[in-house]
Write a structure and sequence with these properties.
4 copies of one chain form a homotetramer.
Chain A: E1 2-5, H1 11-23, E2 27-32, E3 37-42, H2 51-54, E4 59-63, E5 83-85, E6 88-90, E7 96-100, H3 107-119, E8 124-126, H4 144-157, E9 161-164, H5 171-177, E10 180-183, H6 191-198, E11 204-207, H7 214-226, E12 232-236, H8 254-261, E13 266-268, H9 270-274, H10 277-290, E14 294-298, H11 316-337
Parallel strand pairs in A: 7-8, 7-14, 8-9, 9-10, 10-11, 11-12, 12-13
Antiparallel strand pairs in A: 1-3, 1-4, 2-3, 5-6
Helix pairs in contact in A: 3-4, 3-11, 6-7, 10-11
């Protein structure tokens, strides 16, 4: 924390600020400048609340300096983490496709889609058994029956499955059936859920909240690592902005920033960011080109009859095209990086 | 839902859209215009996913028409709801102050603050026992011990207490001790928590998520009413925007819109919106003037030593000033409305 | 500027950064901390570009410290500026109503509205002769004819008039006829226009751009003051956010911040922020309560026939109600401030 | 425009709305639904102001239906426009690199950079002679001297040049020297400038405003086409959002939307979106992969000494790498599209 004093701050005001810093348990270090004094707040174990000092007489600004995250930081853990989901590796050169319907609707539906996406190169099957829905009147997912269908799909196709744990109450159940547990964007700061995920042996897919900063996202991952589970994959899925032509605005600049700050793998979900089918393929290509480690894509064999988010789901042959494009871009980047 | 066709849409495309509407279980109603055709989608029980039709050939736009909420709507329930918290009434002419520290720290602290805010006119005491914190390393609240302190404060001062239920796991506990249960901004779309709140006999304070539309906020309340609990008070606490001079941007235009759309009471929380003490009083005055039914304000007897959010907490004498200003504004509005 | 080094930064990296700081013409001051080094960049005349150093090896963050504005700052000019528009004073205890139609349509219309708003207490008449319109096919204003109508209104009613100068080409004309020159939100960073306004003897009303930070807004005012014209009134009129229930989100927390940072008067324009009539009165009350020095409000005698923005214009009797409410709130604040 | 009535709207209210529609010059078409009435507003030449009817008794919502743009629309002009800049073609399969320094500083600097970027494959040279700067104290560009340098660069290297016209006052000058005239993001709704550009014979590069919707952006282009100049290239350069890890959030989903709605070419400017060098290459790759027709990139031979935006400028060898990556991605997309 750096406290910048006003130009006309009195010595009494400066003394009072230094005293407050020391009383709060920190070390105070005055930094005289050309026109004004600044005071460094040092030896703080965690983040310091800027508002604690910002309101004191003579203080012009209180500026946080150090990053609050530790275990997720590349400063602490310099090498790329590779997360294992079943036999599939995510991160550090491995490019992973996760594909499937928004919601699990039936075994037939899931098997048909799973076989199609596997044939196109998907390595992990996705499908929601518990669905977060804005309306209490919308289809909420098949629940445990959906999880059993997912397990059956894995058995039949060999694909590991990822599905969302909507709350701590169903976490055990999801953990039992799934190979990877998704924490959705709306739950990114559901700290109870994050703590529970920290105690799991299963890898976790942590979506970025649609109004979350990168720091908040990494701090959410920090909760999971701090609990003992370091198998976390981050997933960018778009920000809420004033731009209404897509459901959310995919924030691709977050990818190089996260890759620089953290050792965790990062994937993107163009389906939820777009909200409409036409944008999914171009945004998937853009995500691959920006350098993600994988993609999560919604695919449905009959999108027009889907119980949830049909309008953003690709037809299986569109996914074949997407997977081909993406593989070509990924290989091109790998070749050029050499 | 209204489907607007492109100017050059063929009759085949129009027919295909009408067929898709009917197959999806709706009624199709063609609306020929001057330059193009539109197709109304009628007889839909709930909201229709625009993306289902938006991608079809010839479709220029898919525009949702009806509001998805029912029980919270003034169309269904025209008269103002008044919510009872202990013996305190919220809504429809009653102006309610909820005040107290961000986090419960000790009985002495809470009693001192509670007596001060009661003397200044607060009718409900607030204080967090379970705290949602961005960092796993920050103080997380006293838990059940905090709830017991709140119960003791009620016993000593007669003030009913409101406190946050962070998840379904602690809901029973919070319900047992508190007079009103807060669902925080980060949990506004924690649907499990909303469903649990719908089964409670206790009134619920539902904060607006910082990137939530009014429709999503009212739909979150709809979950609670649909579960059987119609004692919901809405709380505006600011949006996440690019403006960084306050923690969030208090969206006061939401207040007249919600008052028009819904029968539920609405209060504002200027402390969390502002994030800094200097802005709390002016934003509290603005909230009262815009027409809220109450305010939730953070007050601490020693903000500089607070374990959470000290920088935005008012000193007790600042709250006295605030309460005086707000009462004067409220009485003025009541007198002028006659 | 403060450059925070990575924990594992080498001495060579630190030396290179210090060298770069000195070569760029600044003074470098190392600040050793517990875990990492920081380097202060001092003696900079103006703002330093953070990106200059942020990309250097070993640098974790580059944090700007000093405010870039000077003439508009309260640090340089501690006392409130009062701006004179004709015989009307704006700022420092004077509360000023500016009211009138969005666009000047005819002398009859303007006179009717001007008399109505004057009777209700408005001190300045507003009306657009040159209108910024999103569509080239919309009504663009009457141009010089509109300015002549405004001059006639002043002559007949005694009210000074404020109107927008859309570009430098029409500035002379607007300056000739008007008592106060408005620079619109879309032009807030039209630097040529700001420079021209800086050479004017007439007072300037500077609206905040809908995606501008407070710093950018004050820097726009700095252009005008730097040019020699210190008669600037700032006007908050809402931000572009994801919230679509109002046209823009009025940022009332900006008001206390600007009042603290700058000596210039600040008013609000609830009409353009709201975009719909129903929200204008509550937002006007909120603006008055937060502490603005005045309001700009659109009033039309036949809003349903207005050539521009009729839907947000108040009927004259609604303005009477608004003016009464606002005066009462302002007097209450004045009385309580004593 | 579609007017949706409240469920409990009376026949009198419906009649009044229909009457108002007709009086405003439109045709009214009632659309009875299951639970409520809707009223179509037809035969409108241009856009209808929703607020005109939204406030009438019984009206629940007023929903705009038709797009307001005409000349830029693919409905009017189905085939891709190809814009010629000197001898360089932009659009419809041609991929165009525009590269150069943020600001023109000297002939030596410009020639050195121009030769480097030409060697790497750039077809158009960019450089600012008139710079829009947030601060009046920052370097504002060399003015006409800068334009002369650009002309000299063209003469020496054969590269056509693009540079910004900051206002109508300097437009003639810029038009005289440049091959393509840039209208910057802050000027996207400077309607006087757009009208002037509409009268030019030179092609125009129209940057998207950082808080502009796609509709507003296309309407800005509509001003230029309506004036008679159809040689417009659109440039996406990022939105202002709460995300502060990049200067702006590049909105890549805008690209497929604009390509669908309009026939004009679209390029991206990753340098200004990013604001920091590290993000420029990944965002450039993402832009190419999403399907833009070209890129504008800032390159400087000594970024650390640049007079403007040095921190986001690439070193020449970084541009070589970027151009290689982008060409490979573009060729891959062309090959796969066959």
């Amino acid at each position: 924390m750096l406290l910048v004093m006003r130009k006309n701050a009195t010595q009494e005001e400066i003394d009072a600020v230094e005293k407050a810093v020391i009383e709060a348990g920190y070390t105070s270090r005055p930094i005289p400048g050309g026109e004004r004094m600044a005071i460094g707040v040092l030896r703080n174990a965690g983040p310091v609340d800027p508002a604690l000092f910002a309101g004191m007489p003579g203080v012009a600004q209180a500026i946080p300096v150090t990053r609050p995250y530790k275990l997720v930081s590349r400063e602490v853990h310099p090498h790329d983490t590779v997360v294992r989901v079943g036999d599939v590796l995510v991160g550090n050169g491995h490019f992973t496709f996760m594909a499937g319907p928004c919601a699990v609707e039936s075994l037939e539906q899931c098997l048909a889609i799973a076989r199609a996406v596997k044939a196109a190169g998907a390595q992990i099957f996705r499908g929601g058994a518990f669905k977060p829905r804005t309306s209490p009147y919308s289809f909420q997912g098949l629940g445990e029956e959906g999880l059993k269908i997912l397990a059956k799909v894995r058995e039949e196709t060999g694909l590991p499955v990822v599905t969302e744990a909507l709350d701590t109450a169903v976490f055990d159940l999801v953990e039992h059936y799934a190979d990877m547990i998704q924490i959705g964007a709306r739950n990114m700061q559901n700290f109870s859920l994050l703590r529970r995920a920290g105690q799991s042996k299963k890898p976790v897919l942590l979506k970025r909240g649609m109004s979350s900063t990168i720091e908040e996202w990494l701090m959410a991952a920090e909760y999971i690592l701090e609990g003992g589970n370091s198998n976390v994959v981050l997933c960018e899925r778009g920000l809420r902005t004033f731009a209404m032509h897509s459901r959310n605005t995919l924030d691709l600049s977050a990818v190089p920033v996260v890759l620089k700050e953290s050792h965790l793998p990062v994937i993107a979900d163009p389906s939820h960011a777009a909200g409409v089918r036409d944008q999914v393929l171009p945004l998937a290509r853009a995500s691959a080109a920006v350098g993600v480690h994988g993609l999560m894509v919604e695919v449905h064999d009959h999108p027009e009859k889907a119980l949830s988010d049909g309008g953003q789901s690709l037809y299986p042959d569109q996914f074949v095209e997407l997977a081909g494009d993406i593989r070509a871009i990924h290989e091109l980047l790998m070749a050029r990086a050499k």
